[in-house]
Amino acid sequence: MSGFHDAAYNTPAVIATLALCRALIEKGILTREDAVQMLLDEAVAHAIQAEAQTQEPGVSTTTIDVNRQCAELLDEKF
Q: What total of structural domains would you count in the chain?
């Protein structure tokens, strides 16, 4: 698969995670604070991954951009 396809799987996964967290919060299974902390940790992990990939030779800029967008999406939603 191309770098675009690899990175493109991140966006739906992030959106699905956000939807699941919201549903769990609404049901009272997960507290908002726990969800926020979990998602912020994930956003930091994506940002670190995107930054690390900029250091690797041969990584497409599309992969880097999609990973950064995923991290921004996580950061914006909560």
A: 1
